[in-house]
Predict the 3D structure of the following.
Amino acid sequence: MSNCGRRAILGLIALLGSGLLELPSGTSPAPPERPFDTRLKTVAKEYLAWGRVDDERRWAPELCRPPRPAEARESQSEDPKTHGQKLYSLFAKDRKGYLLSGKQANPVGQVIVKQSWVPIEVLDDGRPLNEKAVNNGRGTAGDTFVPYVRKDGKLYKAETQAELFVMMKLDPKTPDTDQGWIYATVTPDGSKATSAGKVESCMRCHAKAKDDRLFGLPGWTK
């Protein structure tokens, strides 16, 4: 670039900084991406292909039958600002690593996505929940999901998808992480990470977990 070109660019930068030259109305500079934004948006595009952690029911070894579809689970969090009062389904990049959480730490590179849903009460026809399975049409072939849960004699349906809650494990020595874990929230369509890092509301809850900051799923025996 010529010296004239450099001077022209520097002059424009100076004018923008002084306020004498403004961007066209309705135009604003794109905000800089934060350290984990790109990786989180990639996770949001890929997680359905990993398959659900609970993609089949567990049963005694002597029973031979086709796996039952996953069911929506009721979040145990009481905080409506996080994933409390929502239904969820869980995905893990390393499913085997997640299942071994009670025996060993999850490997570096593990990513866990809690897909949350806002529930509504619906008329209960009394049918078993596993008869209400639907195919989500995305992710792994044949992936089915039961978007219902019963509570206090009422039936609730996972109606509207809400935020994705993400945990990503880095080297435990990485500064500003929770024993290697970072927490994040991503918009339902995966287009924007709304928080990432040592998210206080997430840390406060997961610090209570005994197994590598993870709670597992209700009813599991580790």
About this structure: The longest strand covers residues 154-169. The chain has four helices and ten strands. Confidence is low (pLDDT under 50) at residues 55-69, 80-84. The helical segments are 3-18, 37-50, 95-99, 200-206.
